[in-house]
Design a protein that fits this description.
The chain is mostly beta strands. It has helices at about 170-175, 230-250; strands spanning about 10-15, 20-25, 35-45, 55, 65-70, 75-80, 85-90, 100-110, 115-120, 120-125, 140, 155-160, 185-190, 200, 210-215, 215-220. The strands form two sheets. Strands 1, 3, 8, 9, 10, 12, 13 and 16 form an eight-stranded antiparallel β-sheet that branches. Strands 7-6-5-4-11-2-15-14 form an eight-stranded antiparallel β-sheet, with no helix packed on it. The radius of gyration is 23 Å and the shape is globular. Residues about 230-269 have low confidence and may be disordered. This is Cyanobactin biosynthesis PatC/TenC/TruC family protein. InterPro entries: ConA-like_dom_sf, PatC_TenC_TruC.
């Protein structure tokens, strides 16, 4: 994370490490040869040494992809299909994942056999010879390895799944900003900033909304720029529309009605 990055108070989702998770029950088949998972995570001080941050499985409960953050002093990235999964991992220390925000990106390109883990935009671990492609996902959970097994504790925000292999340059470009949901290659996007309710909304429009079980909303500082409420272009467009409305209204008046007032609001010069 660059030193220039500023923190902003925003809503994030908090997991207690006991029984909290998000369940996605929709069929997910938008990734096959390439996948990238990225998110901001702030592991709680009470985070156990064996946890599952997420797991995706097939209809036969085969592991399609999963992340352990951590598991017995290691961080694991698994991705594969019904024949088995490929894995890279690396030993870690608590200071690398606890009590502070870190951006993580987990990438696999089965066409080249490469797998990567990036921490705060920098390469953290990699591996080659991993050519198992991914298959259709039937169930997907965030916050645990399974519904009631090895729950994760801490704060999460800006969870994204791509069907492309992100480069470090692309990761660094977007890690500190909110997305629109319309970016090329973006398969699912949960900002996790709703601030209320029990639905994690997928902002891509692909319909992968998740059901929040137990996790609660919390406002805290996050090194991600909040989205602007309204752009200058939008405002200018509205002004031009108002001017056109005013012109049509004035042209429709009788010639003797020039002195009537117009009360519609904004007219931009």
């Amino acid at each position: 994370m660059s030193q220039e990055t500023q923190n902003h108070h925003q809503s994030v989702l908090s997991f207690d490490g006991v029984d909290d998770f998000i369940l996605f029950s929709q069929v997910f088949d938008r990734v096959t040869d390439k996948i990238s998972l990225e998110f901001w995570a702030n592991g709680a001080n009470r985070l156990a040494d064996q946890t599952g941050l997420l797991r995706a499985a097939s209809s036969e409960c085969n592991r399609i992809f999963s992340i352990h953050l951590p598991w017995t002093n290691h961080i694991y990235w698994d991705a594969g299909n019904q024949t088995g999964f490929d894995r890279i991992h690396k030993g870690t220390q608590e200071r690398e994942y606890k009590d502070t925000w870190n951006h993580w990106a987990f990438v696999k390109d089965s066409t080249t056999g490469e797998m990567f883990i990036y921490r705060n935009g920098e390469l953290w671990q990699s591996g080659t010879g991993h050519q198992r492609s991914l298959i259709r996902v039937e169930t997907f959970t965030i916050g645990c390895f399974w519904d009631s097994y090895k729950h994760w504790a801490g704060l999460l925000s800006e969870f994204r799944i791509w069907n492309i292999a992100l480069t470090p340059e692309r990761i660094q470009q977007n890690m500190n900003t909110r997305l629109t949901g319309k970016e090329a290659g973006l398969a699912a996007y949960w900002p996790l900033n709703e601030g209320g309710g029990t639905v994690a909304k997928d902002k891509t429009g692909n319909g992968y909304d998740g059901t929040i079980n137990g996790a609660v909303w919390q406002t805290t500082e996050l090194p991600v720029k909040p989205q602007a409420r309204q752009s200058l272009e939008t405002s200018l467009g509205t002004g031009l529309q108002d001017y056109a409305y005013w012109y049509r209204w004035k042209q429709s008046l009788p010639q003797s009605s020039d002195s009537q007032s117009f009360r519609r609001g904004r007219i931009w010069s």
